[in-house]
Amino acid sequence: MFFRFFEIAAISLGALGGVLALRRDHGSRYDVIGLLGLGLLSGVGGGLVRDIMLGDGPPLALVHPSYLAYALAGAAIAIFFGHTVGPRMLAFMNIVDALALGLFTVAGSTRAMNAHLGFLPCLMLGVTTAVGGGALKDLFSGKTPATFHEGELYALVATFAAAAFLGLVHMGVPVNHAASIGTTIGFGLRLLAIRYGWRTRAIGALS
């Protein structure tokens, strides 16, 4: 129940944020089906990649069709109510993005932990869950995944959030408390990175 709450919240917010970002791009020419499809990828893509890597039966999004429904609902809300992307909408998008990042990271790490994996595999799958949906959305929309470019801190924030969550669990902190702290760290660091313009830098070519 605890894991499903975090997974469902992350899926809904991930799909919502993914479609809002696409609608903000004035050069995009997606129809409703295109936006729903890309929103679906944003919502469940990271979980699909995680579950395929785990190899523990079919991905949860296929076992529980409600996951797909939540992703489609988040995408639909962005399609029909995200027509005005002004300063307030941009601030809302940042909050949604940051919250989804924290939730996805903790959900992915929890799923890996439930499969009795070690610290590093849980960390990797937590980050994969957080960035996988956005990466698939970028690939299917013909772009290089933003997580591989210089730019705003995203995968790095997910790494800190997953490490904090897993570290607290290993120290004996109850999972629900550790999850709340891990999500808060991911959420807060992401907002701070946006607020203060913290960015990664590209590494130049070898001479």
Describe this structure as you would to a colleague:
- With 207 residues, this protein is an all-alpha fold.
- It is 75% helix and 0% strand.
- It contains eight helices and no strands.
- Helix 1 runs parallel beside helix 4 (65-81).
- The chain is globular and about 50 Å long.
- The termini are far apart.
- The model has no long low-confidence stretch (mean pLDDT 88).
Explain the layout of strands and helices.
Elements lengths: L1 H23 L7 H23 L5 H4 L1 H17 L5 H28 L4 H22 L14 H16 L4 H22 L11
What would the keywords be for this entry?
mainly alpha; 75% helix; 0% strand
Low-confidence runs (pLDDT<50, min 5 residues)? none
Helix content: over 70%
Silhouette: globular
- Please report the number of helical segments: 8
What gap, in angstroms, lies between the N and C termini? 53 Å
Assign the structural class, choosing from mainly alpha, mainly beta, alpha/beta, alpha+beta, or little secondary structure.
Answer: mainly alpha
Number of strands: 0
- Hey, roughly how much beta strand do the residues contain? under 5%
Largest sheet: none
